């Protein structure tokens, strides 16, 4: 990644290539469209198609580029819902959404519990119950929000479930938002399917209710570049989001640099291949390490996280018991994980563990530190 970026910049400075003039001071320092320059949107559309295994195409005119996926999610929420409205969100879900969506938009997030006995799969019945309960409270539900692959569980939403979710959204006349920021970071046996692919399979379906959030912080590990995108089939949403993007635009030099990188299909293909291999290797090493201390993990297929069941190490089967274990993991073992209750998981004892933050050399250290907690629990039982 570093070598490719350096080569692209040097080419521009030396005046090489067709896009050399775009890397001059005139091409970099003048005002550009706030919602993203066309060349970047075209490169991003091609990259997203490559991420999705060429199964679906993306139209650059339906994109709004933002300074990260967090602003993308907030801007889309502003466009879809009013303060006091709500999104139904299958839980456990990414804890950052409570901040990213709720703080400034005033939109409520209603957790819809998914259970381990159902492999944390989304239930249309549960969504129906949550929708009716919200209606009784006088809360207007404006959409269903999911992450696919799931953060925190790492599960991938099956094609059939996506069909059901879209039909549910159509029946209720609400929006459907799919956060697919880990689409290219898959490593398991389950195949990732984008809602963009599924929506094309439905006849007489109003695509205007479907929106995708994406970004480069995960699949390309370019968090510092601050690049996110709203992809919407709704022209009015795209127009409104493009105006709000004035407050969340990506710098022109960043976009110009990425045009070269994202357009290099050979480089991207090799990068994704190597990245997936590394993810798979570290995931299996991490899961094996947890097994050594008696901790089982949910079968993940995508993302950076292991969803670990530590319920047998909590002294009281409750959120309070989970929080106490979390505190011991942090203070005694010096292991930082996310408690499931922060993800609105209704089953105490699940924890989100980021395995991509470790190297292979860290695995024995992890095992030794975890044993400080697990062994002491056994001795006190």
UniProtKB/TrEMBL annotation:
Which co-factor is required?
Answer: pyridoxal 5'-phosphate
A Gene Ontology molecular-function term? transaminase activity
List, for all copies, the residue spans of the domain called Aminotransferase class I/classII large.
Answer: 19-370
Q: Which InterPro entries match?
A: Aminotransferase_I/II_large, Ethylene_sulfur-biosynth, NHTrfase_class1_PyrdxlP-BS, PyrdxlP-dep_Trfase, PyrdxlP-dep_Trfase_major, PyrdxlP-dep_Trfase_small
| Entry annotated with the keyword Methyltransferase | no
The protein's matches in Pfam families, at most eight in alphabetical order, are given as: Aminotran_1_2
Q: Which domain of life is it from?
A: Eukaryota
Kindly state which keywords UniProt assigns to this record, in alphabetical order: Pyridoxal phosphate
Where does the secretion signal sit in this chain? none
One of the GO biological process terms: amino acid metabolic process
Q: Which Gene3D superfamilies is this protein grouped with?
A: Aspartate Aminotransferase, domain 1 (3.90.1150.10), Type I PLP-dependent aspartate aminotransferase-like (Major domain) (3.40.640.10)
Describe the family membership recorded for this protein in Swiss-Prot or TrEMBL: Belongs to the class-I pyridoxal-phosphate-dependent aminotransferase family.
Instruction: Write down what this protein is called.
Output: Aminotransferase class I/classII large domain-containing protein
Origin species: Setaria italica (Foxtail millet)
Q: What is the lineage of its organism?
A: Eukaryota, Viridiplantae, Streptophyta, Embryophyta, Tracheophyta
């Amino acid at each position: 990644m570093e070598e490719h970026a350096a080569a692209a910049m040097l080419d521009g400075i030396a005046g090489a290539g067709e896009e050399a003039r775009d890397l001059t001071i005139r091409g970099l320092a003048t005002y550009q469209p706030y919602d993203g320059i066309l060349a970047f949107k075209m490169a991003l559309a091609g990259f997203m198609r490559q991420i999705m295994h060429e199964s679906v195409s993306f139209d650059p005119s339906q994109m709004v580029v933002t300074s990260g996926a967090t602003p993308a999610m907030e801007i889309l929420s502003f466009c879809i819902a009013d303060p006091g409205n709500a999104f139904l969100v299958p839980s456990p879900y990414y804890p950052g959404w409570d901040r990213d969506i709720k703080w400034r938009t005033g939109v409520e997030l209603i957790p819809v519990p998914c259970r381990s006995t159902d492999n944390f799969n989304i239930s249309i019945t549960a969504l129906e119950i949550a929708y009716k309960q919200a209606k009784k409270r006088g809360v207007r539900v404006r959409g269903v929000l999911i992450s696919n692959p799931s953060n925190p569980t790492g599960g991938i939403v099956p094609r059939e479930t996506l069909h059901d979710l879209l039909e549910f959204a159509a029946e209720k006349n609400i929006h459907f938002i799919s956060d697919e920021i880990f689409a290219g970071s898959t490593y398991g046996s389950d195949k990732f399917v984008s809602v963009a692919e599924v929506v094309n399979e439905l006849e007489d379906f109003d695509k205007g209710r479907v929106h995708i959030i994406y970004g480069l912080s995960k699949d390309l590990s370019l968090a510092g570049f601050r690049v996110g995108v709203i992809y919407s089939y709704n022209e009015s949403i795209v127009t409104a989001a493009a105006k709000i993007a004035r407050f969340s635009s990506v710098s022109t030099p960043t976009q110009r640099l990425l045009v070269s990188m994202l357009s290099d299909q050979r480089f991207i293909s090799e990068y994704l291949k190597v990245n997936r291999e590394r993810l798979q290797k570290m995931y299996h090493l991490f899961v094996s390490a947890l097994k050594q201390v008696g901790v089982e993990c949910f079968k993940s297929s995508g993302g950076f996280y292991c969803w670990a069941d530590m319920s047998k190490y909590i002294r009281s089967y409750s959120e309070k018991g989970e929080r106490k274990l979390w505190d011991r993991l942090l203070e005694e073992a010096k292991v930082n994980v996310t408690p499931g209750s922060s993800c609105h998981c209704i089953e105490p004892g699940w924890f989100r563990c980021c395995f991509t933050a470790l190297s292979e050399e860290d695995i024995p250290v992890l095992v030794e530190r975890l044993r400080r907690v697990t062994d002491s629990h056994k001795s006190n039982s």
